[in-house]
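cron nightly-structures :: item 1 of 1
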Amino acid sequence: MGKFTGYAYCRNYIDLIDFNEISIELGLDDTTLTDPGHCTMEGANIVTHYLADYIEDNYSYILENRTFDTVDESNALYSDYLNLYSEFLNIKEQLLDDYEGTN
């Protein structure tokens, strides 16, 4: 999947925030950006506050309907995720090694 194909796919199925489209609304300008793709500390604070508000406004239901009750349970779920991800990386590495061994 190429860069633009992936971007189009994401735009159809995932809510993306294009900060280029809302930079003026947020007050991002030459004083808050070091270049078009990077923020100063002030710009980072603006973007961070916007994202925090956006997540709270659009995804608070996740916290309200979460299936874990404690921080320990949440940490256990995260630990399970890390273990599965580690297994995935090991399998990926093995597949790459096997592929390279056939060439």
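cron nightly-structures :: done
Residues 1-65 form one domain.
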